[in-house]
Amino acid sequence: MGRLEKSHLIEAAVWFAIVVIFFGYSFEFNQPIEIYEFGATGWPRIVIFMLLIATAGNLYFQYHHGSEAQEGRVGIAESDDSETDYSDRTTLVKLLAILLTPFIFAWLLKPVGIYFGAPFFIALIIWLFGERRWKAILITTFVIYFIFLALFVVILNAPLPQGNMSPFYDYSAWILKMNTNIQQLW
């Protein structure tokens, strides 16, 4: 079977299972939407299809190349001298912070909203992954946030959590008002 190892097949099976489960759950909310031709499951099923394509592509790549280190690919080299020491307390705290931050962000979506919370989440994740230059963090956060707003608010016009606490809700309302003004320019 080419250069496929047991770990490659297990990984592919897990991703294929996720695709099947998510696709099955998409029938739970399959309802028509007046302003969107493909219904409530249109975009989720596109994302699921892209996940399926990525999983199949990864499996195809591993079939031909296996896990061999490749020149010029970041993070692909397998080396024994760069093992992570999980007995170090700071490494565990950093790992837990990286894993818990998305859950905390999701928990704060209802009171704070995504419009106000997203830039802080993006900056915090960048910082947790090791970037310490504040200009790089700010520029990257701004670019990602701008792309996020352009895609979900302006292009897709997707309803996102606005928050229900006063200063956060006011900021969300301002963003949505700016979106309405932009939409009326077209």
Fold and architecture overview:
By secondary structure, the protein is mainly alpha-helical. It has 2 domains: 1-70; 88-186, no CATH class. Helices cover 67% and strands 0% of the residues. The radius of gyration is 21 Å and the shape is globular. The N and C termini lie far apart (54 Å). The mean pLDDT is 84.
The tally of beta strands, per DSSP, is 0
Cα distance, first to last residue? 54 Å
Helical percent range?
A: 55-70%
Q: Give the overall form.
A: globular
Q: What structural category characterises the helix and strand content? A: mainly alpha
Low-confidence stretches: none
Number of individual domains? 2
User: From N to C, what is the helix and strand string?
Assistant: HHHHHH
**Using only CA atoms, what is the Rg?**
21 Å
* Helix segment tally: 6
Q: Main β-sheet: number of strands, strand sense, barrel status?
A: none
Give the averaged pLDDT, no decimals: 84
| Strand residue content | under 5%
